[in-house]
Amino acid sequence: MNRGTTRRTVLTGAAALGAAAALPLTPTTGTAHAAEAADSAAALRARWHTLLTGGPGLDLTDSQIAATVARIGKAATTSAKGLDPTRPDGLFPDLTSTTLSNHVTTSFKRLATVATAWAVPGTPQYGDTALRDLLLAGIDWMLTNRYGPGHTRFDNDWDWEIGSALALNDATVLLYDALGTERLTLINTAVRHYTPDPNLWRADRQIATGANRVWISTVVAVNAVLRDNGDDLLRVRDALSDVEGSGANSVLAFNDTSTAAEGTGEGFYSDGSFLQHYKHPYNGGYGKELLSNLSRLLNLLAGTAWTVTDPDLDNVRHWVDDGFDPLIARGDVMASVCGREIARPSKQGHVSAQTVIEAVVRLIPSFPGETAVRFTALVKQWIAEDTYRDFLAATDLATLVAARQIIASPVPARGPLVAHKQHPRMDKAAHHRPSFALGISAYSTRIYNYESIQNENLHAWHLSDGMVLLYTDDLGHYSEDYWPTVDPTRLPGTTVLAGRPADAAGQRTTSTADWAGGAALPGTTLGAYGMELRAFGSSLHGLKSWFCLDDVIACVGSGITADAGAAETVVENRKLRDPRAALLVNGTAVPADAGWSDRLDRVRWLHLAGTGGYIFPEPAQVNGVREDRTATWREINLKYGTDTPVTRPYLTLWQDHGTAPDGAGYFWLQAPAASAERTRRWSAAPPVKLVADSTAVHAVRRCADGLFAANFWTAGTAQGLTSDGPASVLVRPEGKTVTVSLSDPTQLRSGVVLDLDRRGLSVVSADPGVSAASTARGTRITADTAELHGATLTLTLNRS
Asked: Model confidence over 570-613: pLDDT tens digits?
């Protein structure tokens, strides 16, 4: 395809070619018999049936396939419990509400789960006529009593337009031959009542965007196949690109030109950020669902008259490379981009990453050549490195078959990710080293702090107040009941006022501060990141920096001020794999019993077994506590949580800034996964030196090579580098070469000017918009940062 062809030109031409594909599905002009077969309603139903069941010809003597079939049967047995179409109040005894819409969706999901087992050879339910009749009666009950034109929707639109419709469509495909014409018509009428068109206007008068748009397109597409309607498939294909001019963002195009105003800005950005519900970072929630459902749609439509031909489809490669790969740590999607899903017990145990992997497996056929090879290497790495969750033992049959083919391919696994990646469009950063990964979560005037709707995620007050999540070889750390049991008022890395806000207080709030972001040196694991913290609901204010320098993270804070309340910065809050994991304080072990607490004076270094080290170049006072914390999931999620108490052991370390602090600060070096011996050596000779920690600039220098990193909050100078205003900067000397990376983390400045106290430098290479010139005192670097939205610019200088 000519890359100069516009998206609208391509789709207009494709629409003309597909004009004859209205009714029936099979194109009637200009199409070969093979294509006609592929485009028939029966063929497309078979494709969707294969996605749900793995297709015909499965080797049931294969141990992995047999285990998956057994799991499908077991899930169906559980889902069928209590199923009784003669009940007057509900199809299932625990799903009788007429005010909670998720009871409707869950009822349909259970029917689809049972129908899957009925359709998969080898399950106890396969082909059972009595079960078939029970399922048909169950569908009839739902259409009569809950779902369809005769029923008024209640509670959450998502359940009516998307959740229930998706599950009912699946059950219909699975039971298609047993439904009969009358029942099939009732089903199709019901689905179309709530979801008639992919360009659906929601009840709040906002057109569906982002993941919701792809979900709705999936509903319409499968229902179009069930109705043998090619016109609707044409609308689905075009809705992904918004060629009908509805005003919504194209799903496939990057949203970089969006203003992120209310009702806009949802979807992927070119830096890998994904926003949903206006300004919430959501790669690991809605983003993964968008990827998953898009991969299914591409599979359904591939090779037909409705194949997606939009050149922006190529952007999906970047979604995977920039929007998912950096945010997955050995099978766990970083919690800072999972929204309210972290408060759902069903999303523990690396479930979100499994959805991403399944989607990429399905995408590989759509991206042949180099991308297919790279995706194959990536999938092999993701599956191999997650030793906590066996992907092949948890995925569906169709993905199992495809994934095993990928694993058996000669393409080698990619290897562990080693990178520093920042997502300035959603105020997040990820730092990957061979032995650990670290995620930093901030927010600003551009991004919300956290989401709590539908009575979910009720204690997430500080998820973006500088939270630092460390991922080590304890792969189950953020699973196994972390989010209900962790002290939500002391999340690691945050600076907070002591106290417990009301449930969900301050959710969906932007900061009043613009400064959040940083700069990164390309091709390295070197990055400067920071945020101006202005806490919700109080006068707490502070400046926070993280200088990620390979295996060491320099943590700097200054200007911590509040009119009232006790302020503290949390060094660590770790759920302990070993409840008696040793904590060394300056080399001496403290008691390992639950209930221990102490104020530790003149701390130079700490080491927590299984986690790593913390070095305080200036002796500091640190508070510590070991405790067994008990909670229920219902405390953080009234919608999906249970009342069963769970208990987990924790060790928490924090620095106390006192009551109503005025200009307090902190500085320590975090050494994730470091041994106690390495931590001790680094405490004697710290590898990173603090250069500045004022309210104008934070700066550090790495002793081994002179690497300099600074966050300028205002105009200022530090160690021979002057900035004319807010900026994040790294300066790396290598022999006669100096590399400078910079950004405007406020995303408001039209340009940044730096004066570097080094003479005789000339430009070797520079990103567009960056230049350098000699001055009487050294070298002036000028960078055009307008409309870059916090992206890093880099230039390389050479000493003549």
From this structure: 999 999 999 999 999 999 999 999 999 999 999 999 999 999 99
Listed residue (322, 293, 334, 391) closest to 64, CA to CA: 391
Cα dihedral 675, 676, 679, 680 sign: negative
- Positive or negative torsion for Cα 134, 135, 141, 144: negative
- Catalytic sites, residue numbers: 286
Sort 202 into a burial class: Cβ within 10 Å, 0-12 / 13-18 / 19+: middle
Element (H, E) at 762: strand 761-766
Please provide the DSSP assignment of 365-379 as one string. GGSTTHHHHHHHHHH
* pTM, 2 dp: 0.93
pLDDT, tens digit, for every residue of 108-167? Answer: 999 999 999 999 999 999 999 999 999 999 999 999 999 999 999 999 999 999 999 999
Amino acid sitting at position 338: C
b (16+ CB within 10 A) / e for 159-195: bbbbbbbbbbbbbbbbbbeebeeebeebbbebbbbbb
User: CA-CA distance, 650 to 798, in Å (whole number)?
Assistant: 50
CB-based burial of residue 623 (10 Å sphere; 0-12 exposed, 13-18 middle, 19+ buried)? middle
Q: How far from 796 is each of 262, 720, 738, 765, 785, CA to CA, in Å?
A: 40, 18, 6, 5, 17
Nearest 5 degrees, angle CA 389-CA 392-CA 395?
A: 90
Q: Using CA of residue 332, residue 333, residue 339, residue 344, what is the dihedral sign? A: negative
- Residue 201: predicted pLDDT: 60
For 291, 317, 376, 561, 582, the CA distances from 405, given in Å and listed in that order, are 21, 21, 10, 58, 44
- Token code pair at residue 710: 């600074």
Compute the distance between CA of residue 18 and CA of residue 243 in angstroms, rounded to an integer: 15
Distance separating alpha carbons of residues 513 and 445, to the nearest angstrom: 6
**Cβ-contact 428, 453 below 8 angstroms:** no
Nearest Cα neighbor of 431 from 509, 354, 508, 336 is 336
Radius of gyration of the chain (CA): 28
Q: Which long-range contacts (CB under 8 A, 24 or more apart) does 176-182 make?
A: 176/45, 176/226, 178/132, 178/136, 179/136
Structure tokens at 564: 């009232």
Contact of 608 with 572, CB cutoff 8 Å: yes
Q: Kindly report the CA angle at 669 between 666 and 672, in degrees rounded to 5? A: 135
pLDDT given at position 250:
83
Output the six-digit token pair for 527: 């990055």
Please give the Cα distance from 715 to 709 (Å, whole number): 15
- Nearest alpha-carbon partner for 689 in 710, 673, 703: 703
For 488-507, how does the pLDDT look when each residue is reduced to its tens digit (9 = 90+)? 999 999 999 999 999 999 99
pLDDT band at 30 (very low <50, low <70, confident <90, very high): very low
Is the per-residue pLDDT at 35 higher than 50? no
Find the angle CA(339)-CA(345)-CA(212) to the nearest 5 degrees. 40
Could you give the C-alpha distances from 755 to 693, 712, 749, 752, in angstroms and in order?
20, 13, 17, 10
Q: Tens of pLDDT along 233-277?
A: 999 999 998 754 444 558 999 998 765 444 458 899 999 999 999
Rounded Cα distance between 264 and 259, Å, is 7
Written as one string, the DSSP assignment of 301-357 is: HTTSTT----GGGGHHHHIIIIIIGGGEETTEE-GGGSGGGGG-GGG-TTHHHHHHH
